[in-house]
Amino acid sequence: MKPILIAGLFTLTTALATSTLAATEAPGKHHQRHMERMASELQLTEQQQEQLRDIHQQQREQMRTLREQRQEQVNAVLTEEQRSKLQELREQRREEMRKHMQERRQGRGAERDADTN
Fold first, then answer.
1. How far is 90 from 80, CA to CA, in rounded Å?
2. DSSP string, 47-100
3. In terms of Cα–Cα distance, which of 97, 102, 72 is closest to 20?
4. Domain-wise residue ranges, the chain
5. Which residues lie in Basic and acidic residues bias regions (predicted)?
6. Which residues have a Cβ under 8 Å from the Cβ of 22 and sit 6 or more positions away?
7. Which residues lie closer than 8 Å to 21 by C-beta, 6 or more apart?
8. What are phi and psi of 111, to 5 degrees?
């Protein structure tokens, strides 16, 4: 049971960290930059770009469904106390990531200032 719990906690923490990092940009900004790069480097037509957008949207929806299913399965395994502890861990990790991203943004601002001087 412990290996399953540890693996579940690791997976959830990793997913949370990833989503937190991605959420620091405006929604869709990362995806938009990626699509622009692909369109430019691969010389995609408008039709191809639209088809790729549709594929990406379908994948996002499938991933959301999988995350929800995983969470339901994890919750079924954990006790109420463990679920509460997991929620606390998530919130702590989320706050750590917010602080980290804020520090990164401040660092980038300082780098830009140094570059312009």
1. 15
2. HHHHHHHHHHHHHHHHHHHHHHHHHHHHHHHS-HHHHHHHHHHHHHHHHHHHHH
3. 97
4. 2-116
5. 51-71, 80-117
6. 30
7. 97, 101
8. -65, -40
Q: What is the largest CA-CA distance in the chain?
A: 58
- pLDDT tens digit sequence for 67-79: 999 999 999 999 9
Residue written as tokens 């395994």?
Answer: 77
- Among residues 20, 23, 22, the alpha carbon closest in space to that of 94 is found at 20
Q: Which residue has the tokens 């919130």?
A: 91
Query: What is the rounded CA–CA span in Å between residue 107 and residue 24?
Result: 15
- Whether the model clears a pTM of 0.90, i.e. scores above it, the answer is no
**What is d(CA 113, CA 106) in angstroms, rounded to the nearest whole number?**
11
Please answer whether residues 100 and 17 qualify as being in contact, where contact means their C-beta atoms are separated by less than 8 angstroms.
no
- 7-65: per-residue pLDDT in tens? 565 565 665 555 555 555 565 787 788 889 989 999 989 999 999 999 999 999 999 99
